[in-house]
């Protein structure tokens, strides 16, 4: 039955696609190399450069496949670099891909595309540069300036995925299939981690990770980020399902959604639960009330079998009630830490209202202010909110320019969904993406998810695929 589903799937991965086969072989080689030489980042980089240059120059499309594939490795592919947290493999692969693509454009004299998001992105990026150069004068040495500037380059690099994906309209359905399969693999790896490595207390002692116990983390080592990602992909699948006519494809979506929903539940992430609830509530209101009923039933069934899930939801309710009513209820430890993070963010915004602290100079400012003990702690570069992080680092003008990008994405997808000329595939994807963005924005109030590299890979790629 599964063979028939894949065979009949409109954007199937063909076994005879030798380019894709070559890409998968290269990926396996790189993964093995990473495991063998994790303590030798220079050697890893040389292997990556040598194996990728020929492939990417001939077919940049396969760079997109590799980028999506690398997100599956998650924190297992983090390369240590000095006292800082190091970098993920995509952090060096994407700039490399941009250089190769740029040389190819120059040699073949290809016309550059003019995507819809280019102008608002340039607006924000220029302001981010201004903010960075203004804030860099407060940094202590060149190493801090280089680290902060590298994150700005990284931000631009991930946006390039949107730019590159637009150039392959005939490959976009296949890319979406790869995205769904990568989400499925992350869920499966999460189940394996939950079964065989449920306790991260030792990882906390050795590497500084949060000491999560009996929560699904997958290879991202964080239940909130991976949970938010599952909620994001589930919304996309929901939109595609509602506009799909073929039964085999609908069954394909149901199978993946069921696996991802179980994985989402085992993260026990309240922010991820909320993102999922918001996405599917909006999707249900717009297109199908049945989704609201199904989602509610799924929530009741899952929570009825888990006292921990009940406890997490109950704590969330009490914390929200305490925050909204300014009552005397005691917040749970996680909510208390989040509230303190928001309060610290407010103080920094008041101190740097116009230009901000400088793009990604936040961890050095927080260290100087005594908010964090060290710049090497995980998640030191941001607050427990993406929007607050942008506000703190680029000021009031920066956050306005940043929100314009998302407003443009929302308007573009709404027009695509409403257009009578749009195919069912694009309608489903655009509607699912609209709801996914809503959930992700809510999620970003509690976690720095809008600036988390692996999520950016999926976000910018799907942004391009959904664009008409």
Fold and architecture overview:
With 468 residues, the protein is an all-alpha fold. It has a domain at 115-321 and 375-466. It is built from 19 helices and two strands. It has helices at residues 2-8, 18-36, 41-58, 61-73, 89-108, 118-136, 142-165, 172-196, 201-207, 223-243, 247-267, 270-286, 289-304, 307-325, 333-351, 362-368, 386-418, 424-443, 453-466, and strands spanning 79-81, 84-87. Strands 1-2 form a two-stranded antiparallel ribbon. Helix 4 runs antiparallel to helix 5 and helix 10 packs antiparallel against helix 18. It starts with a helix and ends with a helix.
Structure characteristics:
19 helices, 72% helix, two-stranded antiparallel sheet, mainly alpha, single chain, 468 residues, 2 strands
């Amino acid at each position: 039955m599964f063979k028939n589903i894949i065979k009949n799937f409109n954007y199937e991965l063909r076994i005879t696609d030798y380019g894709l086969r070559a890409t998968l072989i290269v990926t396996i080689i790189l993964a093995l190399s990473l495991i063998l030489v994790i303590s030798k980042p220079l050697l890893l980089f040389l292997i990556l450069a040598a194996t990728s240059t020929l492939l990417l120059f001939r077919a940049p499309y396969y760079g997109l496949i590799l980028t999506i594939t690398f997100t599956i490795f998650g924190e297992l592919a983090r390369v240590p670099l000095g006292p800082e947290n190091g970098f993920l493999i995509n952090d060096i692969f994407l700039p490399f891909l941009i250089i190769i693509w740029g040389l190819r454009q120059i040699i073949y004299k290809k016309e550059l595309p003019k995507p819809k998001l280019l102008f608002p992105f340039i607006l924000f990026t220029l302001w981010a540069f201004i903010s960075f150069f203004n804030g860099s004068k407060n940094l202590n040495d060149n190493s801090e300036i280089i680290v902060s500037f590298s994150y700005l380059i990284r931000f631009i690099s991930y946006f390039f995925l949107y730019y590159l994906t637009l150039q392959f309209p005939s490959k976009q359905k296949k890319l979406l299939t790869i995205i769904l399969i990568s989400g499925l693999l992350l869920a499966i790896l999460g189940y394996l981690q939950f079964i065989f490595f449920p306790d991260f207390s030792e990882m906390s002692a050795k590497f500084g990770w949060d000491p999560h116990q009996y929560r699904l983390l997958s290879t991202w080592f964080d239940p909130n980020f991976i949970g938010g990602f599952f909620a994001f992909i589930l919304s996309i699948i929901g939109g595609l399902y509602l506009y799909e006519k073929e039964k085999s494809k609908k069954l394909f979506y149901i199978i993946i959604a069921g696996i991802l929903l179980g994985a989402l539940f085992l993260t026990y992430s309240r922010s991820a639960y909320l993102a999922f609830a918001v996405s599917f509530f909006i999707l249900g209101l717009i297109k199908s009330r049945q989704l609201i009923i199904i989602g509610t039933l799924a929530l009741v069934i899952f929570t009825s079998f888990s006292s921990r899930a009940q406890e997490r939801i109950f704590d969330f309710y009490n914390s929200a009630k305490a925050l909204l009513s300014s009552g005397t209820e005691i917040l749970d430890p996680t909510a208390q830490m989040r509230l303190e993070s928001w309060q610290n963010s407010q103080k920094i915004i008041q101190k740097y209202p116009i230009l901000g602290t400088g793009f990604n100079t936040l961890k050095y400012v927080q260290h100087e202010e005594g908010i964090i003990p060290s710049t090497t702690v995980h998640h030191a570069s941001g607050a427990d909110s993406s929007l607050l992080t942008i506000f703190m680092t680029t000021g009031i003008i920066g956050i306005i320019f940043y929100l314009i990008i998302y407003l443009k994405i929302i308007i573009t997808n709404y027009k695509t969904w409403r257009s009578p000329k749009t195919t069912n595939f694009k309608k489903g994807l655009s509607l699912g993406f609209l709801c996914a963005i809503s959930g992700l924005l809510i999620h970003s109030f509690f976690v720095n998810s809008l600036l988390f590299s692996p999520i950016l890979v999926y976000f910018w790629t799907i942004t391009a695929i959904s664009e008409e």
